[in-house]
Input
Amino acid sequence: MIEFLSKELSWVDVEYWFSIFNDWSLVYIIIPFFLIELIRYTVLKRLTTDVIFDSIANIITFGGFVLIEYILGILAITKIYFWVYENFSLPHLPINWATVISCILLADFAYYWDHRMMHRVGLGWATHTVHHSSKHFNMSVAYRFGPLDAVFPILFSLPIVMLGFDPILVLLSEVFVQVFQTLLHTEVIKKLPKPIEYIFNTPSHHRVHHGSNRQYWDKNYAGILIIWDRMLGTFEPEVEKVRYGIDKPINSNNPIKVFLHGLQRLFAKVSDTPGFVNKLKVLIMPPSWQPKPNK
Output
């Protein structure tokens, strides 16, 4: 086993396996499963125009996300990763199954903290609230991104690069964690066998994360492994029926409003908050933070 894990891999093999899971899953899992969800909506008489337009808005926000973050930012991000890799990392690690698996686990742990920060910091929530603003829960919601959703992960991924992991491997691992979560956005699958539910993030756990029920707020941040939440005190099981959305609904399927409403609300709150220090606190404190009233 040790010999197998330590055997050096070619980049062709690594990229091949990641492409199977990261790229082609859209064809052999995600689109077919979304069609099953549409059939389910139809059978349950829940296939409304709101569901259809919500799904369309989800895909359009993903297009905006790609335009901003990938077309305009991926080169800069890659350069930052490689600059850190060449100047501030520990000795570079070889590419083998041990380092690939370790990198995925570290990317998953980094995602937990990135995701937790996005919920607990005003500026992070201003972009991440887009993902939570849908009243529905299906695989199209997985593509409902905010305009800055790819910026904050850099802060948590660079330490992995500093450990000596190849920047491209880190990026591929991050995408793998994101693709895994795409499969969790469904109501079709109820609960899986207990050992799986205990270790892995599942549709049940992720439905809780999308719940607007008060006891479900800021719970189940996990990407692949739910054990991070169990270890760090943020786990909540699915008990009460989940109500999806945010506490202040946007009541719109206009993709522009969906995409920008979080930043608009943040800027409005900053403008309405008196005092320079308090304005800064709006950006870095939890979204519910309010300045103390003057006595």
In short: Residues 97-120 form the longest helix (24 residues). The mean pLDDT is 92. The chain is about 60% helix and 0% strand.
